[in-house]
TrEMBL record:
Alphabetical list of InterPro entries matching this protein: NAD(P)-bd_dom_sf, SDR_fam
Keyword line: NADP, Oxidoreductase
Record protein name field: SDR family NAD(P)-dependent oxidoreductase
This protein's record includes keyword Metal-binding: no
GO molecular function: oxidoreductase activity
Superkingdom field: Bacteria
Keyword set includes Membrane: no
PANTHER family assigned: DEHYDROGENASE_REDUCTASE SDR FAMILY PROTEIN 7-LIKE, RETINOL DEHYDROGENASE-RELATED
Length: 289
């Protein structure tokens, strides 16, 4: 179990959306928050908002740090800056993510694969590589990786294959990290939301130059209409704070997604049933020979 009160949190993708919702709720819970994002202007506006909350609940203003999570050196520099301001980081929230929807896998440009994997997967890897050795050395702390319900199933209707590929990886990384950190005093959670009212469908506007630069990705825009009436980022932040205090590993936000996961697992079990039938048939044929 992890109580954010009086702790220092490092949250990526905190300039808007789920990251900002998490930052707000952590500040209300009494945490000092180092907020990271690649968009300087959005980050400063978010920092000012969270600073006001932080002054009321923890007495410390929030810190804004411009970060490209797809770049290991950028994350390391941000970690050093956060610790120089607030002291040791206790909670790492690897939340930054980008959309990759509406295109068949065979049609996704390699540059888009590089970008999605760079942010959604390597962003988590860079956060882990930077902070886990520091947390282990102290024997305390917690890591949260933001995946998605798309990290546990693929929505065929919306062509989420490329996005789900990255989020399946985040779930696997989180499960492995939890096992590896058992007994160290460092906890792990993986956040798996569904529809949240954010601007993730516009995330291509922030693509770094070395990965192709900002651009419009109209294939993602349909997601804006689908998620505009979803949960608020603050609701996700509330859920995460409760999950941290409860010691939850899988952090789900939408109860209706349970049936999706049950259906996928049923298909997996069906595959084993088919294997059993095959092995029985082969055994019978050998016995009759």
């Amino acid at each position: 179990m992890f109580d954010p009160a009086g702790k220092t949190a490092f949250v990526t993708g905190a300039g808007s959306g789920i990251g900002l919702g998490i930052a707000r709720r952590l500040a209300r819970a009494g945490a000092r928050v180092a907020m990271c994002d690649i968009r300087a202007e959005a980050l400063e506006a978010a920092r000012q908002e969270v600073s006001g909350i932080s002054r009321n609940f923890s007495g410390d203003e929030a810190l804004g740090i411009v970060v490209d999570v797809s770049d290991q050196s950028s994350v390391e520099a941000a970690a050093d800056e956060a610790e120089a301001r607030f002291g040791e980081v206790d909670l790492v929230v690897n939340n930054a993510g980008v959309a990759m929807h509406g295109v068949k896998i065979e049609d996704v440009a390699l540059s888009d694969w590089d970008w999605a994997l760079g942010v959604n997967v390597y962003g988590v890897i860079h956060g882990i590589r930077t902070f886990v050795p520091r947390l282990k050395a102290r024997g305390s702390g917690h890591v949260v990786n933001t995946a998605s319900i798309g990290g546990l199933q693929v929505n065929q209707t919306f062509l989420t294959g490329p996005y789900s590929t990255t989020k399946f990886a985040v779930v696997a990384i989180s499960e492995a990290l939890r096992s590896e950190l058992e007994g160290t005093g460092v906890g792990v959670s993986v956040l798996c939301p569904m529809a949240v009212a954010t601007d993730i469908h516009l995330s291509a506007r922030s693509r770094p130059e070395r990965l192709g630069g900002p651009h419009e990705r109209p294939q993602d825009h349909f997601m804006g209409d689908l998620i505009k009436d979803g949960q608020s980022p603050d609701q996700v932040g509330d859920r995460l704070v409760a999950a941290l205090r409860n010691g939850d590993f899988y952090v789900f936000t939408h109860p209706e997604t349970r049936r999706w996961i049950e259906a996928r697992h049923a298909r997996i079990i069906e595959g084993f049933d088919q294997l059993d039938a095959y092995l029985e048939d082969r055994s019978n044929r050998k016995g009759a020979a």
